[in-house]
Design goal:
190 residues, mainly alpha, 8 helices, 78% helix, 0% strand, elongated
Length: 190
Amino acid sequence: MLPMSANIAFPDYDNPKEVYAVFGLTFYWAQVLEQGVLNLAVALRVAGNGGFDWHSVAEFYSLLERKTFGNVLKLARQLTAIPNELDDELGIALDRRNYLAHQFFVERAPVFQEKQGRRQAVDDLLADMQLFKDVDRKFDPIWREAWNQLGVTEEHLERLQKALDSSPNALTEEITAIAVQIARQSRSKT
């Protein structure tokens, strides 16, 4: 998960910009969840392709990053069984994400000029944000375990996060180093 503080203790309902700020943060958390589903789908596709190899990982990420959240979720569901309760929550999160992307401003913009309309919009966005965060928290262990099955450990994920926080070049170098390490480990097991 990418680092970002999302604690909004006291939204400023008087500020018309608040709706847009909270929308941005809410949609960020929707994308964090979407990335988790993408991570699972890629890991499962790589596993189904005969195991870890960096070319396959890059190819599958490139392919799936162009698909909608709904299509990636559909693929993940085809590749593995997601626990029923979590799958239901993912469906709700997908519906809310799509509402935000396609209808939120169309339906809500006319009431933003009124304080009560802004208050309701912000409160609804905060509820959606919490939904995305909660579902993501429950989903993280699933995609992490799928990668673990391919040899990508929590230590590797931490190294990738540090590299991501550092620079794009550091991330590329770390991905390469981890891929080489996993390939060596795979060869030594055979």
